[in-house]
Each structure stands twice: as structure tokens, then as C-alpha cells.
């Protein structure tokens, strides 16, 4: 979406919608054995620095229980690509390689938290990460930050995360990624909060698309999702609702998909958004 065509793409047709997914399964999941998890983390090739960031204190603040998350705030110089992924970045420039390797390393740390063995994370249609069977997840990266959030498919249907620098959008971008109603809200909210809520809006739309695309393998335009926000008492975190302005599409025979709900936070110079649809 927009300048962030780095994942999945942009310009989606108006004919497809996304939504909140509902699960009839119990909202609990057994914790993996700690000793086995430690062994799997070691197999994932974690450096000490990476293991520390496995706690995911930044994005973890906006995630529900039952998902696994890992993040890198610093890039370990000895971090190498998984052998099964090297061909995907063989021709990439160094920055792209570091983002790719770092985000997928986080994914393997998250797999270990779920009690799953390390695995190569391939690329599917529109660059969609291909996680092991039975696992859903999402990756993100921006300058100085890489993260992955994964979950078991039997509990959670889809995950979408995004990270952006807490800075205003480049000139001219807002009009191309927002609806008139969203811009009207921003005109009052930005001066009142002092936050770069235009970038938050963009970040929420990215998370929306990342949660939706794996469910449908269909495109979605910026103009097809209307995002509304709430702010908590701190003023730097809250929730968002992504309402779809296109005909809903069913997934696995369920009700039409019409919306997603997510959480957001602004901290340490970063904007983070997360949708975990259950």
C-alpha cells in the first residue's frame, strides 16, 4: 500500500472486503514446555542480543495472550539468513537483506515460543510470508526495528502487524491513502494530540491489509477501509476499527468479512499497529 509496496503490493480492486474473523474454538492454548522452547530457540540460531529482544516488549504491549512475538531493536552483525531463504535475497541490496533476515529471524524465535521447530519462511503471492502449516503470522520492519508475531491457526485466524517511524507522511501521500472522513478527523486530532496520526492511519491500513490478504488472496485499496481510532488515557496508545466499504467475502464458509479490530501504540520513536483476528 502506498510507498510501502515492500509487502504484498498496492492498488487493490474495490470488489473485495475484509473483516473480523470469529472462532468457536476455546480461547486458550497450552504453553509449550520451557526446556523444549529453549532448545528450539537455540536451533533458530539466536544471538544473545536477539534472545533478549525475543521478549518483544514494544509490540508485545498491544498483543493479546496466546500469540508469540519477537523483535530486534538492534541488528546482530553475525546474523545470517536461513539456508532455505538465501535464494530469495540473493540479488538484494544490503538494507533489504538485513530487513529480510532480521524479520524472519524474529519469526523463528516466535515459532520456538509456540513449540514449533525452526523453518524457512518462504514468499508467496504478492510477497506474503509462508509460515509452517498450522501457523499464521505477520512480519514488519522499518529503520531500526524488525518484528514478527505468530499464532496457532486453530486459535487465531489471521495476524497483521506494521511498524513505522513516528514522523509525518511524505508530502502528497496522505491524500492517496486516506478517505475524506479520515482526513477530516486528522485535521482536528493532530493539533490536539501533537502526534503524527497521519502516519498512524497509514500504519493501521497496512496492518489491515496484512491481516486480510492471507485469508482471501485478494487485493484491497486504501479507499476500501475506513479506519477509526480511540485513544487511551496515556494518549499514545489505543484501539482502531477497520470497517470495509466493499461487499464482504466469506472465508471457510463463515459469515461475510466486514471489519477488523486492532491496537496501536506510539513509543520509542515508533508507531506500531497489530490486528490478531480470532
From TrEMBL:
Mg(2+) binds at residues 162-164. It comes from the Bacteria. Residues 158-238 form the 4'-phosphopantetheinyl transferase domain. The keyword RNA-binding does not apply. One of its GO terms (biological process) is enterobactin biosynthetic process. One of its GO terms (cellular component) is enterobactin synthetase complex. Its cofactor is Mg(2+). Pfam families: 4PPT_N, ACPS. SUPFAM superfamilies: 4'-phosphopantetheinyl transferase. The keyword Metal-binding applies. Keywords: Magnesium, Metal-binding, Transferase. NCBIfam families: 4PPT_Npt. This is 4'-phosphopantetheinyl transferase superfamily protein. It comes from Nocardia veterana.
Amino acid at each position: 500500500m502506498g510507498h510501502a509496496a515492500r509487502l504484498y503490493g498496492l492498488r487493490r480492486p474495490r470488489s473485495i472486503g475484509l473483516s473480523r474473523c470469529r472462532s468457536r474454538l476455546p480461547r486458550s492454548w497450552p504453553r509449550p514446555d520451557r526446556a523444549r522452547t529453549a532448545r528450539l530457540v537455540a536451533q533458530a540460531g539466536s544471538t544473545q542480543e536477539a534472545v533478549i529482544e525475543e521478549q518483544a516488549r514494544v509490540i508485545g504491549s498491544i498483543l493479546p495472550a496466546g500469540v508469540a512475538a519477537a523483535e530486534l531493536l538492534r541488528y546482530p552483525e553475525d546474523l545470517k539468513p536461513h539456508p532455505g531463504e538465501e535464494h530469495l535475497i540473493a540479488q538484494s541490496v544490503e538494507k533489504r537483506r538485513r530487513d529480510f533476515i532480521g524479520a524472519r529471524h524474529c519469526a523463528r524465535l516466535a515459532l520456538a515460543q509456540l513449540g514449533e521447530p525452526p523453518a524457512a519462511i518462504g514468499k508467496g503471492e504478492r510477497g506474503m510470508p509462508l509460515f509452517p502449516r498450522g501457523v499464521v503470522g505477520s512480519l514488519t520492519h522499518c529503520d531500526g526495528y524488525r518484528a514478527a508475531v505468530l499464532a496457532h491457526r486453530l486459535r487465531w485466524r489471521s495476524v497483521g502487524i506494521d511498524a513505522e517511524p513516528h514522523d509525518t507522511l511524505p508530502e502528497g501521500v496522505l491524500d492517496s491513502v486516506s478517505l475524506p472522513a479520515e482526513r477530516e478527523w486528522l485535521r482536528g486530532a493532530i493539533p490536539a494530540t501533537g502526534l503524527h496520526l497521519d502516519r498512524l492511519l497509514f500504519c493501521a491500513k497496512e496492518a489491515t491489509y496484512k491481516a486480510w490478504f492471507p485469508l482471501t488472496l485478494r487485493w484491497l485499496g486504501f479507499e476500501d477501509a475506513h479506519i477509526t481510532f480511540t485513544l487511551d488515557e496515556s494518549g499514545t496508545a489505543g484501539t482502531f476499527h477497520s470497517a470495509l466499504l466493499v461487499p464482504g467475502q466469506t472465508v471457510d464458509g463463515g459469515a461475510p468479512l466486514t471489519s477488523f479490530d486492532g491496537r496501536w501504540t506510539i513509543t520509542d520513536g515508533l508507531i506500531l499497529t497489530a490486528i490478531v483476528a480470532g
